[in-house]
Design goal:
The chain is an alpha+beta fold and about 425 residues long. It has 12 helices and 22 strands. The structure holds adenosine monophosphate and glycine (GLY).
Length: about 425
């Protein structure tokens, strides 16, 4: 099979690494990819910006048999619908939901209403827009604290605000709705109750009716040790999640996963792809914080290494709507990843520094590239999150220690990583 993978982050390197191990994968193309993915297949440049005409042409010209979509953007913009509507691409499966289904991530209001229709536990909420602005002001003024404001649409991970007093909440609400703080994305705002607990990520792959669960993971979003400082795209991840015991995971499956997949099926949503459940454990019970319509990053960098199945077989079964024939097998060991970022990230940072030490090899570690690019024989930094080192171990501590050993061999100017990933499980 010829496979095209869209995206350029650590998630895509991990997926490319896994796809390229399958003997069913004849040629793998990654658009645009990074220096790491170019070791698993061929990087190509395709515009994903406004329409998918270039992607379509490439798929037809290169006889692509399957497209795997890494990030949410092309899904929310309707790449699945675009391929389905064109005779020359209708037979090529695209792993990801339709634009309608991708609203589970692309619209917080859509996701909340879906959860309400299907009785899926989530924080109590109301949604407001310009027309209902005054009602929103009154609602917020009487709301318990803290209070959570969410821009309805995609806002590059910045659209969620947790406010600890009413003055701040009302000011932010005004900025979002009246001043378009997040552009179109905050024309509508979801105002919700604050939930206190510990978060984790659960991943399903569905064919629209059946589903399989992939290894679960916990990511570390804050830049600083002990989860302090600004939010980032993710500074590390561990899998499995030590506190997610069988009892809790049974609740997750019965109360969250099954009602979600059944809801997708009942509503006849065209969805062949990953569902990412961002969960919070409140007391002993799971609540959904958010859905994403793709895999997580950096969670994928620990999920793929623990997945024993041939990923091409699994994705083909999803495309054929035969996921009921698949049993997922997981590596029993822990996998932990530690992300190395550019100095200054998540604020301003410089790119283009040479990375050394990448050829350091140990049996239990993998280096996944995120923001990197090749320049002749060198590999240069090309983003905020530069690379992640994933290691296996019999405990979280052992796996993280191995990753840190590898990171000591790697260097680029102003490199930073959190040295406490998995700290609460040591
Ligand atoms: P989201 O973009 O929906 O994932 O939200 C970003 C982060 O905000 C989440 O990972 C949580 O840490 C936090 N968050 C979102 N909603 C809530 C909530 N209702 N209660 C507490 N924290 C929340
Ligand atoms: N790690 C969180 C995300 O991918 O959105």
């Amino acid at each position: 099979m010829n496979i095209l993978l869209l995206g350029s982050g650590g998630r895509e390197h991990a997926i490319a690494w896994k796809l390229s191990q399958s003997n069913q994968c004849t040629q793998l193309f990654i658009a645009p990819g990074n220096a790491g993915t170019s070791e698993c297949g061929k990087n190509i440049n395709l515009s994903l910006a406004n329409d998918f005409a270039e992607v379509k042409k490439f798929c037809v010209d290169t006889a692509i048999d399957m497209v795997v979509v890494g990030p949410e953007d092309p899904l929310v913009k309707g790449i699945v619908d675009f391929f389905a509507a064109d005779v020359s691409t209708a037979a090529i499966p695209v792993i990801g939901p339709s634009a309608y289904g991708a609203q589970l991530e692309g619209s917080k209001a859509f996701a909340k209403a879906f959860m309400q229709r299907h009785n899926i536990p989530t924080a109590a909420y109301k949604e407001f827009s310009t027309e209902t602005y005054q009602e929103g002001v009154q609602y917020i003024a009487k709301h318990t604290l803290p209070i959570v404001l969410k821009a309805d649409g995609l806002a590059a991970g910045k659209g969620v605000l947790i406010c600890t007093n009413h003055v701040e909440a009302l000011a932010e609400f005004e900025l979002m709705i009246q001043q378009s703080k997040f552009g179109e994305a905050s024309k509508k705002v979801v105002v919700e109750e604050f939930l206190s607990g510990i978060e984790m990520s659960v991943f399903a792959l569905t064919d629209g009716k059946n589903y399989v669960l992939l290894p679960d993971a916990k990511d570390y979003k804050r830049i600083g040790v002990a989860d302090t400082g600004l939010n980032t795209g993710g500074m590390g991840a561990v899998s499995p999640v030590p506190f997610a015991d069988d009892d809790f995971m049974n609740k997750v499956e019965e109360q969250v996963i099954k009602p979600t997949i059944n809801g997708i099926y009942k509503e006849q949503i065209n969805y062949t792809g990953f569902v990412f459940f961002g969960l919070i454990k409140v007391g002993e019970n799971p609540f959904v914080i958010e859905y994403n319509c793709r895999m997580g990053d950096p969670e994928t960098e620990v999920v793929m290494p623990r997945l024993k199945n041939d990923l091409v077989t699994v994705l083909k079964a999803a495309a054929a709507k035969k996921l009921d024939t698949i049993t997922v097998e997981c590596d029993e060991r822990y996998a932990c990843t530690v992300v190395a970022v550019s100095g200054g990230y998540p604020g301003d940072f410089e790119k283009g520094f040479e990375i050394t030490g990448l050829d350091y090899k140990t049996p239990d570690s993998l280096i996944f590239h995120a923001g990197t690019k090749k320049a002749y024989d060198a590999v240069l930094t090309n983003g905020g999150r530069v690379l992640c080192v994933t290691s296996y171990g019999d405990s979280v501590g052992e796996a993280v220690d191995k990753s840190k050993e590898v990171l000591k061999q790697i260097s680029f100017e102003d490199m930073y990583y959190r040295n406490d990933i998995g700290y609460e499980f040591l």
